[in-house]
Each structure stands twice: as C-alpha cells, then as structure tokens.
Amino acid sequence: MQRRVAITPSTAPSIRPGPRRRRGSVIVIVIWAIAIAAVLVAGTQLIAFRQATTGREAVARVQARWAARAGIEETIAVLEYHSMKPNPDDAMEIFRDLEAVADGTLATGDWTIRHTDDGREVPGPQDENAKANVTSLDRTGLLGLDRMSFDVADSIIDYRDEDNEVSGLGAERDYYIGRGLKPPRNAPFRTIAELERVAGAFPEYVRGEDANLNGRLDPNEDDGSLSPPNDDADGLLDAGWSAYLTTYSTSNNLSPSGEPKLYVQRATPEELTARLGIDEAQAKALQQYAGQPNARMELLLVTDLGRLSSGNANTGRGGSASGGRSGRSSSGMGSGSGGRNSGGSRNGGSNNAGGNGGGGASNITPLSNDQLRAIFRESTFTDPKQITPGKINVNTAPPDVLRRLLGIDSYMADGIVALRQSRQGGISSIVDLLESNRITPQDLAGLASKVDVTSQVFTITSRGRSEATGLEVEITAVVDRSTVPARILEYREQ
C-alpha cells in the first residue's frame, strides 16, 4: 500500500529567492540612493553658487558705490577749496580743477563724472548756473524754448506765482482741481521734474531723451524705439527743456574774492571805500542811491552816480541823456558828451558838466570802469538774507542759453562767447562785457540783472565701476558751495 502524506503550510518546503534576485534589488536601491544624493549635492552646489554669485554682486555693488561716492567727495572737496580760497582774477580755474578730478581710480574700482554739453558728454559736473532758473524766467524767455507755447508759458508763471489769478492763457487752481490734479504750488519750483505738473508741460518736452534726468546718455536713451524713451539713436542726448532750465541756482552772496558781498544800504562808508576803491563822496552817493525805492545797480552803467543819488536821473533803461554813456566808438571809447573818455571815466566832461550838474552832485567824481567792476563784484543792493533765483553765468552758459533765454540776438551772444574764449581766466566782472564791441552800456544795463560771472550750484553725476565685475552704480548729488561745508540739496542713487 502506498502511503499518502498531507502537506500543510507549516510542513511545506520554503521557497527562497536566489542570489541573483537579491543582488538586483540592492543595485536598484543603490542607484536610487546615488540619484538622490546627486540631486541633493547638485541642489546644494546650486544654492552655494547662487549665494556666492549674490555675494560677489553685493561686494561689487559696494565697491562700485563707494567708487562713485569717492568721485562725489573729491568734487565737493574742490568746490569747498575754491569757496575758501577763490581766485578772483580767474573765473575758470574752478572748472579746470573740477575737470581734473572727473576721473579717478581706487584699489577696487574707478569713477567717471560727466555732464552733457550740446548733446555730448564732457568731463566734470553740471554747472546749474549755466542754465536759466525757471522760477525767474519771464514769458519772453520761456517762449525761447523749443515746443513752448503761449498757454504753457503762462501756466508755468501761474504755477509759481503767489496768487490764484489766471494770467493770459495760463491755468490756476480751479483748472487742476477740476481735473483731479494737485493744485499749483504758488511758490518756486523745487525740481525740474515738477514742471511736468504744469498744464501742457509733457515729460517728452521737459526731459526729452533724458528719462532719468541724470544729464548723461544711458543705453536705453540711445536705442531708438527698443526701450523707453523714444530717441533718435544718434549718440547725442537731447535733454529737452532740462538742458536749458534749472530750479537749483540761487543768488550769489559771495564775491569772487570769497567774502560776503557788501550790503550797500547797511555798510559803513569806510567799508565801501576799502572794498570798492571809491572815495568818501562816492560812497555816500552810492549809499544814498541804493536806499531809494526801486534802485537798480545796473543803472550805474548808463547814468552818472551824481544824478542817481540826487534823484534827478531818468531811471529808464539805457537812454542817451547827458552824463550817461551815449555810445561806443570803434575803439570802445565814447567820444561824445557823456561817452567814456580815455581815462575810463564815465563822463567825457568835467565834474560840472552833463549828469553831474545840479542837485548838489557836482562834487561827485564819475565812477571809473575799475570802480564799476568792484561795485558789481563786491556789493549788492539786495538783502543777503533774501534768497532769490540764481543768475546765468556768462562764462559757462552755452550759446543757445544766451540766445534763447536772455532775449539777445546771435550777434551779441557770439560777442560774449568770443570775449570769454579770448581770456584763459574767463570774464571776472560783468562790466568786462563792455570790452566787446558788440555790447553797449545800454545792452549791458538790460542784461545785468540776469547774468553773473560765478557759479555756486553744481550737479555731480558720478558713475562708479567695480574692477572685479564691471558692475556700475551711479550717484547724483546737487551741491551748493556757497557755504563751507557745502550743502547737498539733492541725493539719489541708481
């Protein structure tokens, strides 16, 4: 008989995987582990690389920033030096020294300082006094700008004046409020960008191609229509109205010698004679005239001091009354009654002739040209505590600014440019303009309230570069050097 044996799970023989199957599973696990480890390592490396890159960029940015800042500080040092130790006989020395520090190198980077002149970048900071201050520019001057219309010119005047009365074709508070806009300031403009708040003053007029108002040609401002703003990609910067206008320049209460100007009305006769080279009688007459209502220093150019101090002079502009300058000969000296004599006197006759007669003024010696130079350089009829918009520097203003915004013709503007170019030190007194045969005393009397020969406010656009990576940082600072230490009126980085 055959014997049958029942097989139960407990007695059934076990089936174990062979060696090959075990090795295959281990290999899969190892591969997965390696893959995961590789991902982790790659991720860690990527994070580390990004952190290193960020760190290098951060270091490079710091290097570039401090290179740009070094350029700012170097320029401010030059400005302060010339405020403390000016050269009254060389109005251009400060600009030569500013150009000398327009480029510099540090251990970790370098800087360049540039501004735009006639569309091209030139070394050094922008002289804000080379422009016209929009706060004081009259309607005629405003209309000298390209794309300036009568209504916009009137609106600019309405925006800055103190009242809410509409002038001409302008716009006042009701216009802006009715359109949900901010009302006009009714005070001087603070920045050129604020012009864009005026009705009709569009950004493309104010800024032109200079989108960031830094006075330098940036890549996006020279690429046509590829990126804002639209430009003509000609390698030149068209800065619109910002090339001609400023809001930063202020009245200059420092003389070219570096001393505060004498406030004639409050100065002593001794101070006037010592600083201005005039005698006691002239000092008293000058002070008497300065104390009269609506006294204007520029009238000294066309009317004798004796007549002005006695109140008998015709205070209109220019004129050919006896005693005033009535013309200029080809040699630059007046030859008729009242013209300049060969000694540089303002009166061609004796003290009793012409404008020095009458009113007790016969004992007042006419002012010589040297005395006039000193009066315009060293004194003022305006209270120094009263801050007024700055004048245009005839040494640095582009010819276009002279022609368009001073309201003079090309003949006279070219005469100013020719005179300043003929002198290495530039024009040291506005009275020197009379040495040009294109400018008469009457012409200068009309210009004297608008022009000067020194500058106080500068815009420094310094571009710093890291030597390691080439990364750039730009800093723009508007600096007023009328005090020491100099004051920073505006500061921005980009």
Question: How are the secondary structure elements laid out?
Answer:
Layout: H1 19-84, H2 93-100, E1 103-105, E2 109-117, E3 120-123, E4 126-127, E5 132-133, H3 139-142, H4 150-160, H5 173-177, H6 203-206, E6 245-246, E7 262-263, H7 269-276, H8 280-290, H9 305-310, H10 369-378, E8 379-380, E9 392-393, H11 399-405, H12 410-421, H13 441-447, E10 451-452, E11 457-466, E12 472-480, E13 487-493
Parallel strand pairs: 5-6, 7-8, 9-10
Antiparallel strand pairs: 1-2, 2-3, 2-11, 4-11, 11-12, 12-13
Helix pairs in contact: 7-8
- Helix percentage range: 25-40%
Return residue spans where pLDDT drops below 50 for at least 5 consecutive residues.
315-360
Global geometry: elongated
Let me know the largest β-sheet.
7 strands, antiparallel
Helix count? 13
Overall pLDDT level: 84
Q: What's the number of extended β-strand segments?
A: 13
Oligomer: single chain
Which structural class fits the helix and strand makeup?
A: alpha/beta
User: What does the radius of gyration come to?
Assistant: 36 Å
Note the run of SSEs as H and E: HHEEEEEHHHHEEHHHHEEHHHEEEE
